[in-house]
Amino acid sequence: MTIPSLSILHHSPRVTIIGAGKVGSTLAQRIAEKNLADVVLLDVMAGLPQGLALDLMEARGIELHDRQITGTTDYADTADSDVVVITAGLPRKPGMSRDDLIKTNAKIVVEAAREAIAHSPDAILIVVTNPLDVMTYLAWQATQLPRDRVMGMAGVLDSARFQAFIAMELGISPSDVHTMVLGSHGDLMVPLPRYSTVSGVPITELMDAATIERLVERTRHGGAEIVELMQTGSAYFAPASSTSLMVEAILLNQSRLLPVAAYLQGEYGLNDVFIGVPCRLGWDGIENVLELRLTEAEMAALHASAEAVRRNIEQATEMLATVADSNN
Ligand code: TXD
Known about the structure:
Blueprint: E1 14-18, H1 22-33, E2 38-42, H2 48-58, H3 60-63, E3 69-72, E4 83-86, H4 102-119, E5 124-127, H5 132-143, E6 150-152, H6 155-170, E7 177-178, E8 181-182, E9 190-191, E10 197-198, E11 201-202, H7 209-220, H8 222-230, H9 237-251, E12 256-265, E13 271-282, E14 285-289, H10 296-327
């Protein structure tokens, strides 16, 4: 049998996921089973990504897709990826804040970003590792990619949590709830009830202020609530779904308006920092940053959030410089 040489056969989109842990492996499953792209899973633990990839390949006949899933420890196997997602690094343990992870994760993320982009110079980079906004900044700095091709995943997850809590409170489908959470991925995130709606109706019309505040607080501590329950790791189903939504928006050029950590150059009065703001995502990555009209209090909360990120960026940069000095 002769197989026709269709150019499309040579252009299957390719997503590399660095870090084959809980988030990375669940994301690989979502991307393959949604039939979005071939997936390369890379980890430092020899055997882990290969085993997970084989396991996912063995499910293909049942899940009915033909995507290739490859496991590797070698960056050469990730070459020419369209999207690179970094999930490598440690997750939180009970009692830890996301910022406690700076020391362990900064070096891992910088090296992963550099290696991955050296092999896929045209890729769009999505960072997932915590502390999210700081790690996204370091990855951008290490790769020198244009700002529209580097982003962090957090706002989609924080908005999904707020969406879930509103849906549970009102006893309605989460599909009818649209939420907007800006700012850093941490206790200083900025959920925006004024811009959160149920089928077009602002939630401020449907719940009293105390109820909304309770749901906002639960959203702020949504990650910690799960860490406390699990005791042995952090959330990964909703984080993988959120990242997969961003990958899908990019690969299918959907022009979705999603809150993602983006590099700001004057938007919202902020400069030289990555922070969660609504962005239009498509083939080119971040195609546009939407500047919402914010109240004074909302703007102040966003700036406080950005200040905290900035302090952590300084701390991480000093730490990386010390490591580099001690290696010289
Ligand atoms: O909203 C968000 N952005 C997040 C972020 C939501 C959930 C999880 N979030 C963070 O993602 C979490 O705090 C961690 O920093 C990362 C990954 O979380 P995950 O739960 O997947 O952690 P695991 O299961 O420990 O997996 C991490 C993997 C593990 O297999 C390590 O061997 C691997 O990372 N690892 C590396 N891979 C490649 N290269 C290097 N250097 C490396 N170091 C560790």
